[in-house]
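1st attempt posting a full record on here, be nice pls
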Amino acid sequence: MLRKPNPFLTLGLLLALTSAHAATFPLAGSGTEFPVSWEKYGAATGVGSSVYKFKISDRKGLAAAMGAGLYPNPGATLNGDPAFRAWVGSHKVATDYWSQVNSGDPRADFYAWANAKDVGPGTKLLFTAKALAEAGHVKQAIKAYHAVLVLFPGEPCWSADHTFVWYVASEALGQIESLVTRHPELGWRLDGAKFSIENANDTDLKNDVVTVDPGNWVKYTATGRTDLSKLKIINQRGLGKVRLVQYENGHWQLLVNNKPFVVRAVTYSPVPVGESLGEYGQKWMTEDTNENGRSDAAYDTWVDKNANGKQDADEKTVGDFKLMKDMGVNAVRLYHGPNGTDYNPNSLNKKLLKDLHERYGIRVIMGDFLGAYTVGSGAAWEEGTDYTDPVQLENMRRVISDYVLDHRSEPYVLMWLLGNENLMPGDYSGVNATRTKASSQVEAYLKFVNEIAEMIHRLDPEHPVAVGNFALEGLDKYQANAPAVDIFGANLYLGSTGFGRSWKRVKESFDRPLMITEYGCDAWNTRTKKEDEKAQADYHEGNWEDIRLHLAGGNSTGNSIGGIAFEFVDEWWKSQTGSWDVHDTADDSPMAFPDGWSSEEWLGLVGLGDGKQSPFLRRPRKAYHLYKEKLWK
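the predicted structure (as tokens):
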């Protein structure tokens, strides 16, 4: 439960995971059961309500079932492990446990958290489970995660300065679902488990209403992929060249010209070093600094293979369009820029986008900010876009209408995307970081989203309408207020294992296909003070694997239609502390990244070297090659 970011002990730091490929280690004891039959060791009351409790009646039996180091076993049960005794000899058991999250040594993390003394039992179990999962002890990790949900669902975890709080059980349930999905060979599935919180948008725990159902473990045999062509279509959204269909098994699929289309997209903002996005916008479409009559970024970039900072004879000019095609990209996410409150027909170069589609096979996700950053609304920056102001609403209607009419017949259009994190929680003035009041005007905002979606459907029945949401904020209000939305898009940065319960929550609350409109990880490690391409690549691999596992026809929710990796190339203007001419390594914001922080100028799959050869030099990172050679091949 994300409340307020904080630079000391943050959800991003706590939930970050390293590579899923870390080496395993032997356990002192793995218990007598998997999964644990909780009914043998106690009884639950108030299941599915806010008064849920579990009372243990056979503590000794539960201890034997769980295994060494897992509640209710004390950390001393690890004494039978020679490696643990050696570790104790060289470490203080009463240590700074938070430094043993994602340390790169899962065994040490496990030992430290299994012996933690000054944290709640649910928090202790959660981070013990994370170390176990990282080391490949999946069954033990699942047992520990489920124990959090069964025994300690009401336990909060606070930040060091007490400005930020979340519930450990929510994360535990998400990790269970992720691990079970990734490991069908286990043969078990947790059915009926639920965890929800009312009044979660403040730090007053007294008004929180926590509802819990720990679920039941059932035997499960994964089947092969379902032949969707043999299933009946029960729902369609749109009848045009790009449309969405839902099959009788509840799975969603995006079709382009009647063929399945999985979105393999990138956000593309090739801002040259020394420029900022706010001022530069989409100038890359016409920027021609070498005066050869074509876009620098699109056609004239080259790969610095030997990292010497200059273009050698064997480093031919290729251009970003070719680099994206080689990577396997089939769509890019772009936003247009109006002139104040009037549509600007020159903000996107239609000739260039036609070539992007016709020659490179890449389509465009056509974005409009819908008042984010006050773009198109006419609102003052200090006040933010107001979705109850009739003048601002009319400004946005006019801009979007002209935008759609200008591009609707172009072959490169894949879909329309409304907003970008407009529902991000705001400060006490009601204005959030995206300069809108949407978070304090949720229903008004969503009703406007619905109105615009309906307008676009009338103007362009050939392409669906998506929304670019901030995580799952306001999800429970979409069905009632914005049913015209075809695709629920969410910017999600939840860690290297993927997106947890997001797939199921969208399916249950707003039955639409889910597209991850932003995901990814930076390539800078603030702990080691070095570039870490491997950690970035591992993170991307885990995220894409989760997207893939939830596609239609698989053994999971089937409501994934793909995702948009953030981002193709580094942007040097983004740091809050430095210069547009310097590649800042500041830890700008807490995130669920390998080091717990996001260094905003290092999110690109492609780097710019030392910046002296901008806008031409490109250095594809390991994550780029991973997509090219494996994930999107």
